[in-house]
Amino acid sequence: MIAYGAMLDVPRELVDYVSRLLAAQRRTRGTRKRTRALTCWRQALFVLAWFRKREDLAVLGAGFGISRATAYRYRDEAVAVLAAQAPELTEALHRVQREGWAYVILDGKIVDTDRLRVKTISRKGETIDLWYSGKRHDFGGNIQAVMRPDGLPIWVSAVSPGSVHDLVAAHEHALGALYAAGRC
Fold this sequence. Notes:
There is one protein chain. By secondary structure, the chain is α+β, with helices and mostly antiparallel strands. It has two domains: 12-83, no CATH class; 89-180, no CATH class. 44% of the residues lie in helices and 17% in strands. It has helices at 12-29, 40-53, 57-63, 68-83, 89-99, 166-180; strands at 105-112, 119-121, 127-129, 132-133, 138-147, 153-156, 160-161. Strands 1, 4, 5, 6 and 7 form a five-stranded antiparallel beta sheet that branches.
């Protein structure tokens, strides 16, 4: 395998920001210096490249000199650090009220997933794959998002299994708070 350099079209400030979040998390965990395969900055660059390019993690990891397992671990660690920065739904709705938006958009999406073959019992009493989406005819997770009128997300829910209907997922994650805020 031959590694090559490539340009990543994200601002340096974004890499610095994610790097600082990773460094803070490593300090919280008590990770000793120079015990990780990548520095915080290189890990941030690695994860942002994955977000932007959606390359195979094993191939991308090899370009950064890390194994497949380390690539998955570093990706998951950075995603968790970024997810911790996301506002709670009530905070997002307070922002909506402060900024005086006329409305918000609630929408759901099934995102692709793999390696999730958990069985459950359906309402009809049949054994089904929990993460299989009949809507997509593939395995996936159901996420809900509240968006500004221009379509920019201000809040994204935790993932529900793909077998969960959009309306059920919306009700579980968002509709109660939207009704309470007077936005539905």
